[in-house]
Amino acid sequence: xxxxxxxxIAEIVYxxxxxSFEKLKAAGHLPGLAVVLVGEDPASQAxxxxxxxxxxxxxxxxxxxxKPADTTQEELHAVIDELNADEAIHGILxxxxxxxxxxxxQVILRIDPAKDVDGLHPVNIGKLAMDDxxxxxxxxxxxxxxMLIESGIETSGKDVVIVGRSLLVGKSLALxxxxxxxxxxxxxxxxxxxTKNLAELTRxxxxxxxxxxxxxxxxxxxxxxGAVVIDVGINRIDDPTAKKxxxxxxxxxxxxxAETCEAITPVPGGVGRMTIAMLMANTIRAxxxxxxxxx
Length: 295
Ligand code: NDP
Known about the structure:
The chain is an alpha/beta fold. The protein is 40% helix and 16% strand. The chain contains ten helices and eleven strands. Helix 6 (139-150) crosses helix 7 (170-178) and helix 6 (139-150) packs across helix 10. 42% of the residues are buried. Bound molecules: NADPH dihydro-nicotinamide-adenine-dinucleotide phosphate. NADPH dihydro-nicotinamide-adenine-dinucleotide phosphate binds next to helix 10.
């Protein structure tokens, strides 16, 4: 069994980012990312912190905007409008989920699609569906695809089953993998909570992707021997033996599935590592596109 780890593949993406960054700098452009955080959710604070650190490591311009949990829709729209107009900002990311009283769809719609480096604006989802390379694909699905490409796993003509149909992960990954670009051309099936005979379906997969949000949901019975398994899930479970009393696990029962599959991503240390890397890559490309320096 081969372990597909996120770190070395993320490093490849960062090396590319640095190369593009140097070219941009030489031409007088500095990529800038703004991250907007509403409320005090500790997990969101941690994600925003790591995005900011990574920007700093790469030498990018980064802005963190923190708003209280009772921020109104209008106030949040005003923040986005300001960032849309800010020449120093090429990418805007609003950390999700937002507090319940805020309408996430309206917030995403407010972002200039050319700065929507999270790839969730309908213009970018449309471009993804149209195989238009000027759009931005959502970061987690493009990270999954990049892991397959860098691991030398052929996707063309392969049966891919994705469990989970969120726009953030499952549905967007389906568009990427059925697309005509590198890491695509697969025959994709998307399963969800209404799917019948799930294990029968997932056992047909050459490449199985789990994006469900239920710890250890995918067991040995779901996986064809020799399949490649990508575990997107990040779930915190109680573990009295762990220092913090809890630990992170994926949607796949790693120990059981690792016995039978050809390759698998670990949690933590797998797909999660790729999400921030793809965010940086999207931000740098947003800067290249605006500067007219994109390939
Ligand atoms: P959502 O809750 O938005 O979607 C979960 C999907 O799983 C839904 O489509 C749901 O079906 C499906 N599902 C739920 N129960 C079942 C079931 N019993 N059988 C089959 N399908 C089921 O989650 P996300 O897509 O946002 O995230 C999925 C996982 O990925 C989470 O663990 C999340 O933490 C993780 N994640 C990781 C990231 C990373 O960087 N690695 C980034 C984003 C998410 P239905 O639509 O019918 O409800």
